[in-house]
């Protein structure tokens, strides 16, 4: 079993249970210095999984990440993604090498198919596995794939993770996707774990937060992290926000807290379409 606060991929690689997201970062030059400081502070605090993608700002987020990890690449576990329109054999390799250039590295630790498109999954998986073989990526995974999509992967193909939208307001994956991933020993990577801030004024969340002397965001993160096979990747573009997120690692919700949050945000009672942002 992995130590508390870490998650182990099928490959055996172990990473912290909280990382850093970068969607909508790198776009505004006026915010660049603060965003770089936030990512670097995250590394200092052990939030070493940094998630990005070629589509985030048409590569601007990858360039930001590359600058943030310059001189300390070995401390970071870099995750990036290929868009479906690039996910054929040649396009996947070309997209990966473009991401490598923007990131300023010779290896992406985990490379994901961003969502399912028109390219057959077997072709994308072949392309991803070729990148693993040539050392351009450490491992491959998927994002925004539901249980039915995973069933369409080639025989024997097992992604390192499935990155999906998951938070108190988006609990659909608990019904069928999470049980399937647990059977495969594949951890979840949860994006938008605080629903881009839209959860934070909910009375139930605020009540639990007040009882712990915590912020609603910390409660929302602690709730996602209550499961030992989930990696949360909240975005934090300021150092104060990074510190707030990091403090959620020390928050332990009680059974009463969890019951109150279940009452306010009921778990799914049947299969639901996988939600995306």
TrEMBL record:
SUPFAM superfamilies: NAD(P)-linked oxidoreductase (SSF51430). It comes from the Bacteria. One of its GO terms (molecular function) is oxidoreductase activity. Residues 18-263 form the NADP-dependent oxidoreductase domain. It holds the Pfam family Aldo_ket_red. CDD domains: AKR_YeaE (cd19138). This is Aldo/keto reductase.
């Amino acid at each position: 079993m992995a130590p508390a606060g870490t998650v182990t991929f099928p490959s055996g690689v172990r990473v912290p249970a909280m990382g850093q997201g970068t969607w909508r970062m790198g776009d505004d030059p006026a915010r660049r210095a603060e965003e770089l400081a936030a990512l670097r502070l995250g590394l200092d605090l052990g939030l070493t999984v940094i998630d990005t993608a070629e589509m985030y700002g048409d590569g601007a987020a990858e360039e930001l990440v590359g600058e943030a990890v310059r001189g300390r690449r070995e401390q970071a576990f870099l995750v990036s993604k290929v868009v479906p329109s690039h996910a054929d054999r040649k396009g996947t390799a070309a997209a990966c090498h473009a991401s490598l250039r923007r990131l300023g590295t010779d290896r992406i630790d985990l490379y994901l198919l961003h969502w399912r498109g028109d390219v057959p999954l077997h072709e994308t998986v072949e392309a991803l596995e070729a990148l693993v073989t040539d050392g351009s990526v450490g491992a491959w995974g998927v994002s925004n794939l539901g249980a039915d999509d995973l069933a369409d992967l080639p025989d024997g193909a097992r992604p390192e993770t499935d990155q999906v939208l998951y938070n108190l307001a988006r609990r659909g994956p608990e019904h069928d996707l999470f049980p399937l991933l647990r059977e495969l020993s594949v951890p979840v990577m949860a994006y938008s774990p605080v629903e881009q801030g839209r959860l934070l004024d909910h009375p139930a969340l605020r009540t639990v937060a007040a009882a712990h002397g915590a912020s609603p965001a910390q409660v929302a993160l602690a709730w996602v992290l209550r499961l030992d096979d989930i990696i949360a990747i909240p975005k934090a573009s300021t150092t104060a926000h990074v510190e707030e997120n990091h403090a959620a690692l020390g928050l332990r919700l009680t059974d009463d807290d969890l019951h109150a949050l279940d009452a306010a945000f009921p778990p799914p009672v049947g299969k639901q379409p996988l939600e995306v942002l």
